[in-house]
Amino acid sequence: MSPSSPLPLIAVLNGPNLNMLGLRQPEIYGAATLDDLEALCAETAEQMGVAIDFRQTNGEGELISWVQECRGRAQGIIINPGGYTHTSIALMDALLAVELPIIEVHLSNIHRREEFRHLSYVSKVATGVICGLGMSGYALALTALADMLANSDD
Ligand code: DHK
Q: pLDDT of 5-29, one tens digit each?
């Protein structure tokens, strides 16, 4: 990439109830807030030489629209779809349609929790999955995706 090229853009998309971070079940999701998470992602992105578009929504349709908008605009997606992870075939279809590298992140280890959290439709189409590492999972996902983009041919 030439020095004048714009930085690769990674969308960091967060689904329902992640706006409640810091308040919601801190024993599971931690004490830090969504703003803290955004700051960690921004710091990691700067270190890795990528730009991020960090967002949160409680709406399934809005989340799907944001995924669709990534096509031709972003170079990769990091997504924590919250509860839609376990229910949304429509979100899975959107992630398939966008044809980008996708890393699915969960703060908690969904496989250690209730049975209904063990199924992830998103995992069926994601490039990689990180769960159970709290907010560090987002930093690891950004690092991995930035490395992937830097080592890709285009
Ligand atoms: C977040 C949620 O809101 C839950 O619905 C998922 C995920 C787990 C997380 O661990 O980040 O089941």
A: 689 999 999 999 999 999 999 999 9
Distance CA(39)–CA(60), nearest Å, equals 24
CATH number (domain holding residue 47): 3.40.50.9100
Pocket test for ligand 1, best of 37, 108, 136, 138 (most atoms within 8 A of CB): 108
**Residue 120, ligand 1, Cβ within 6 A:** no
For 33, phi and psi rounded to 5 degrees?
-100, 175
- Ligand 1 centroid to Cα of residue 67, in Å, is 18
**How many domains in the chain?**
1
The DSSP symbol for 1 reads -
**Please, what sign has the CA dihedral across residues 48, 44, 106, 122?**
negative
pTM of the model: 0.95
71 is in which domain, residue-wise? 9-152
